[in-house]
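Issue 218. Parser rejects a valid record. Input:
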Amino acid sequence: MSLKLKDLTNKREHLTGGHRMCAGCGAPIAVRQITLAAPEDAELVICNPTGCLEVSTTIFPYTAWRSSYIHNAFENAAATLSGVETAYRSLKEQGKINTDYRFIAFGGDGGTYDIGFQSLSGAMERGHRMVYVCYNNEAYMNTGIQRSGATSYASWTTTSPVGKDSFGKPQFRKDLTYIVAAHGIPYVAQASISHWRDLVNKARKAFEADGPAFINVLAPCHRGWRFPMNKTVEIASLAVQTCAWPLYEVENGKWNLTVKVRNKKPLVEYLQSQGRFAHLFRGPEHQKILENFQRFVDEEWERLLKRCNG
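Output the parser choked on:
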């Protein structure tokens, strides 16, 4: 079925305007695109651990959410939602609830890749029918731009500083999408706010999945990545065009590349657009770092193509 933008404009909004997320933040864009894909005849229960999204949308006594909403600790979003989903199934089987509910968690990369990984893995393994979304801005932005398992190689953060003895984060990021896919759950996807049609289609599949679903969506942070706030979608698109952030899905074990990149741009175009990588271009001493980064991206891309081509 072809998805048209006008079909989404009259749908119910689960996140209102007027919240206090930064202008140009990628996270609320991701939330709006994903929740617009929810079934119209279902109610949403949204779980949100501490992070930028939570602290900026639920400032007591106000809330920007139009759905049932649970704020929980940094590390246990998936565990919290597992319990709620289990209680719902029990009550529905007893005939005490007739309304159709869908359960969705929105966690940042710190609360997903790192602190919350144990509860995420447990929820996926147990088979709870829920959608877990990582709004991935590649660092602990809410607490001061510290590096996380999602932070890109050679990136400046406050805990991977740049100086004469450091070029930024020395490790490559964890491939969490692949790790979650290894749980054998019905649906896993990697997406970007720059490709709204792709993301909404993936969210629809996630809501329809008969079991756990996971979406890892790139949601750039202009404050932490150091770019103008009006360039968020453009930066996210560059990540896709350079294959730094490929878009694909794993549906019932089948790998599928959802956005084909035919004219792959060099990685430096993506890196030069962000201040967190500015140190790599101040002299020739970092040329080897740039070559290592490009090699990593190329190898990951080729590995993904092999998975998708069977």
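Fixed in the parser; the record now loads. The first strand starts at residue 43 and ends at 49.
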